[in-house]
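Quick illustration, no need to memorize.
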Amino acid sequence: MSSHFLSLAIWVPILGALVVFAAGNEKNLARWTALIVAFAGFAVTLPLYMGFDVGQAGMQFVEQRPWIPRFNIEYFLGVDGISVLFILLNSFITILVVIAGWEVIEEKVAQYMGAFLIMSGLMNGIFSALDAVLFYVFFEASLIPMYIIIGVWGGPNRVYAAFKFFLYTLLGSLLMLIALIWLFLASGGSFNLLEWHQLRIDMAPQILLFVAFLVAFAVKVPMWPVHTWLPDAHVEAPTGGSVVLAAIMLKLGAYGFLRFSLPIAPDASHYLAPLMIALSLIAVIYIGFVALVQADMKKLIAYSSISHMGFVTLGFFIFNRLGVEGALVQMISHGFVSAAMFLCVGVMYDRMHSRQIADYGGVVNTMPKFAGFFMLFAMANAGLPATSGFVGEFMVALGAIKYNFWVGFLAATTLVLGAAYTLWMYKRVVFGAVANSHVAELADINHREFLFLALLAVCVLAMGVYPYPFTEVMHASVDNLLKHVAVSKL
């Protein structure tokens, strides 16, 4: 199926951002223009889902034309059941970020809104690029708006956090660039990802390719031990930055494993699977304990994200349908839940300018509506049944037990740890008597805040109660990937 919906998903937000920039110092004009562009960006992604053929494993909505003919580089786009949902998620989250920053951002409003719109378009490009150079350009370009968002609108240590974020992710990507050049030469001068998936590569080069991709994608996920940039970036980023970072940017590394590591180096993926499983379990368990001792709410949720993403990488490397589909469901769910958690912290921070758990207590007495939303999202973060947080974790745990009982047993500890750190934070912040005069003066959520929290609440509950619309899209593509990885390329 050929159309221009993928190009529209990429370029409508990016070109719309230029219109937003033109608003200059007119704050209200910039806000309304950004909201219209964000809605338009989401609207053009809807046909991707509605017109998607769930029975087809291959790429759909393909666009292919020459870009740099001399090096055989193409403008080559397409989506399958693995990538299509992330484009919808990204465009949906962009709308929420614009609404969330409506009253909070007072300085350089047009630039703030425009940066998020550009990032939205670039990340849609990452999820749809089927040419390796095009993927790399989008992959690296997405760093720039996030670097600016943290560096300009972030907290007191924003410059340090922005540099750390940029250097970690850029250095990780350099090895991937070397791997891409090697594959270009090995394939006889092609950057076509689908052609690379059919290459027969010896074991030694496969392992080197896998390691090169691992370094690039592990930093993005982020996996232990290259995760240290994430808590700093989250703490210093404005609320919108934290939302996009957790809901979308962390998914780029995990998506890279499915698009590059597994299909291009299948034998090395099997050979190094025990290492990946071990690193994933360390993230799930060790980082879960680290989250328990955090005094800053944003840091706690940041470490929680690392732990949840450990579940995702675990699901990929147990090589069964339950594991891979569970990991994909967990990625979508984490997009909703982490966005909601960071927005809840943002709501409180906008009123009290503190993220320290110790500064709160008894919030339910002054903000009852907010406390209700916050409880739902805390339960989803802890993996409560009937919320989206449960579905993916349960599928991965089942797949892990099918793979190896003890791996599944260790992975399931995340359900205990997740409940421990999330609910303990909730108890200290929300329950009890009013802790101080600042909490006593808090006003409950306004209509704007109610809107974005209600939208996420609907998503979390709908996915938890009826995940079928999400899972049916994945089946054919996941089965095809697993069949491909199971057949030795040697």
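The chain has a mean pLDDT of 85.
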